[in-house]
Design goal:
Elements (H helix, E strand, L loop, with lengths): L1 H13 L1 H13 L3 H13 L1 H47 L4 H20 L6 H45 L7 H56 L1 H37 L6 H23 L1 H4 L5 E6 L6 H12 L8 H11 E17 L5 E17 L1 H7 L5 H13 L15 E2 L12 H10 L12 E2 L3 E2 L1 H10 L10 H7 L1 E3 L9 E5 L7 E9 L2 E5 L3 E5 L3 H6 E6 L4
Parallel strand pairs: 1-3
Antiparallel strand pairs: 2-3, 4-11, 5-6, 7-12, 8-9, 8-12, 9-10, 10-11
Helix pairs in contact: 2-4, 3-4, 4-5, 5-6, 9-12, 11-14, 15-16
Length: 569
């Protein structure tokens, strides 16, 4: 439309005077009176007549120009409509040489149409024709190039598809399969479309909800602001109360966090089994070591057919805290009865006793009284006894502990299970289950009755608070039971209670049947442990289990309190 206006303006500029004059002439033709007056004027004035004739000629020329302009406008409109229709048609079809041909034809048509109106010598129209032609040529060339490229891609795609079908004939070779695939694709498209619509609806509803919530929050904020403005003192008081509550809750929560942490930390760093089970397992392990030592000592009795015996022995022993830490880390709250087989396996891995026999030929030489020498050759049979102690360190390292168990074990070794007293206590060194009372001591009938009752329960396990065979015994419960069944009636009391009813005597005065008291074996004032003295530096007591024990060990010497003699009955 801008081009047509520009062209029309150029035409009007060229004959503007003629157009104005022609309009005046047409206006004047409307009445006969005016015509008569003009005729008279023209007759009177030849100059006016010339102007009139000239105006008529220019008017005819202007009418022709207008008709030409209308024809041009119609042609331009038709060409634009045709080009728009072709564009719509070509937009639905793939870009190719047909479209390029159409663009070229349209360009030629435009150039031809514009050239019809370039006869007036207008340079601008000529330039437009040239530019349109050049642009059309470029567009057609681009379309042709793109068409050839698309055709090339299409051929390559066909080749790839053909090659794929050759590699896998099932793919794409079955029309039903292709139809099913298309149906599946359409179904997935419809499903995605439904999901998209549902998501869109959900977003819309979410936006509405957010908007409503925002409005309500705004209203609430405004109401709170108004309330604060109207009641400033009340708000300050409320804030103070809230701050106090927060401080108290923070302090309580901190305490609640600290206390479990302290409890858990204490539990992790301590032995979880009962003391009686821990010391009982230790006693069982030491018993295995004692049996090993006895076996080595009895070698010549067990193997008497050898002339000589050689010994290569590692030291027998272990760290009791190490054993307790390992069993706790691996088995947690273990029981003595459940550890019998386990400690035997540990013992076999720690100690290895081997016997190796060999024979040696030897020659003895001597000098006789007359100065002559003599010699003899003989064979000697030798038994070599070798004991290897790899140590509990090696056994535990190769026992298959997890990383967590190893960490627990190391912590228990560091803290000694928070029970360092365990292996210096009443269940420690000096126990002897095979001890026998000397016969002369049993001539005292009162003492003989006590021993007869006490030995009924040898090997019974320690039970805290126990005072009878049905419930088990602790140290004071055992002694009370024995003396109550041997002629006394002291009831059930503690070690300190028994000490109070006894007469204190010196160590030199002590004889079989007296009581022996210890202190500090656990945290309690006065006597904390009691046993029955049987003479010869031995006592029978309720350790874990009930057994005979030497009172001359380091532990018992450190915890010794006094001897006591029971009153006459």
């Amino acid at each position: 439309m801008d081009d047509r206006k520009r062209k029309k303006s150029k035409f009007r500029t060229k004959s503007s005077m003629k157009e104005e004059f022609g309009k005046k002439l047409r206006h004047g033709r409307g009445s006969s009176t005016a015509s008569g007056q003009r005729n008279e004027a023209s007759a009177e004035d030849p100059e006016i007549t010339k102007k009139v004739l000239k105006g008529r000629a220019q008017s005819k020329e202007l009418l022709g120009v207008k008709a030409q302009m209308k024809a041009q406008e119609k042609a331009v409109s038709a060409q634009e409509a045709q080009r728009a229709a072709h564009r719509r048609n070509m937009g639905k079809s793939p870009i190719g040489s047909g479209r390029a041909a159409f663009i070229a034809a349209s360009t030629v048509s435009d150039v031809a149409g514009k050239s019809q109106y370039s006869d007036d010598g207008d340079n601008n129209i000529s330039e437009d024709i040239i530019n349109d032609a050049a642009h059309g040529s470029e567009e057609a060339a681009h379309m042709l190039k793109e068409s050839s490229y698309r055709q090339k891609l299409k051929r390559e795609h066909k080749e790839e598809k053909k090659h794929a079908n050759e590699q896998n004939p099932k793919d794409g070779s079955n029309p039903r399969s292709r139809a099913a695939q298309k149906k599946k694709v359409r179904k997935s498209y419809y499903d995605r479309e439904k999901e998209r619509q549902a998501a869109k609806g959900g977003i819309t509803r979410l936006e509405d909800l957010v908007n409503n919530l925002s409005e309500k929050i705004s209203d609430l904020a405004a109401a709170i602001a108004n309330f604060v403005r109207d009641n400033p003192k009340l708000i300050v008081a409320v804030i103070i109360v809230v701050l106090i509550i927060i401080m108290l809750s923070t302090m309580l929560s901190s305490c609640s966090l600290v206390m479990p942490a302290m409890t858990d930390g204490g539990a992790v760093s301590s032995y979880s089994a009962y003391d009686e089970d821990i010391t009982g397992v230790e006693k069982d392990y030491r018993k295995l070591e004692k049996e090993l030592s006895d076996t080595i000592e009895d070698t010549e009795t067990l193997y008497p057919d050898y002339d000589e015996y050689e010994y290569e022995l590692d030291e027998i022993g272990h760290d009791p805290f190490q054993l307790a830490a390992f069993l706790t880390a691996k088995y947690d709250d273990y029981k003595r009865k459940d550890m019998k087989d386990i400690i035997k396996e540990l013992f076999k891995k720690q100690y290895k006793l081997t016997y190796t026999s060999r024979e040696e030929t030897r020659t003895d030489t001597w000098v006789n009284d007359d100065g002559t020498t003599g010699s003899t050759t003989y064979t000697v049979s030798i038994l070599k006894v070798k004991l290897d102690n790899k140590g509990l360190d090696y056994v535990i390292e190769h026992s298959g502990l997890t990383d967590k168990q190893k960490d627990h074990y190391e912590l228990l070794m560091y803290t000694r299970g928070n029970k360092e007293y365990l292996f210096e206590d009443v269940y420690g060194d000096g126990d002897d289950e095979d001890y026998s009372i000397p016969g002369d001591a049993l001539t005292d009938q009162q003492f003989a009755a006590m021993i007869a009752e006490a030995e009924k329960y040898l090997g019974r396990e320690y039970v805290w608070g126990g005072s009878s065979p049905s419930t088990g015994f602790d140290c004071s419960g055992f002694v009370c039971w024995v003396i109550n069944h041997s002629g006394w009636h002291v009831g059930r009391t503690t070690a300190q209670g028994l000490r109070k009813i006894c007469t204190r005597i010196s160590s030199d005065e002590a004889k079989p049947g007296d009581l022996i008291f210890f202190q500090g074996t656990y945290d309690t004032p006065g006597a904390s442990h009691v046993g029955i003295y049987v003479g010869g530096g031995m006592m029978i007591h309720c350790g874990n289990p009930i057994s005979y024990t030497s009172v001359t060990t380091k532990y018992w010497r450190n915890h010794f309190l006094c001897y006591g003699r029971l009153p006459e009955h």
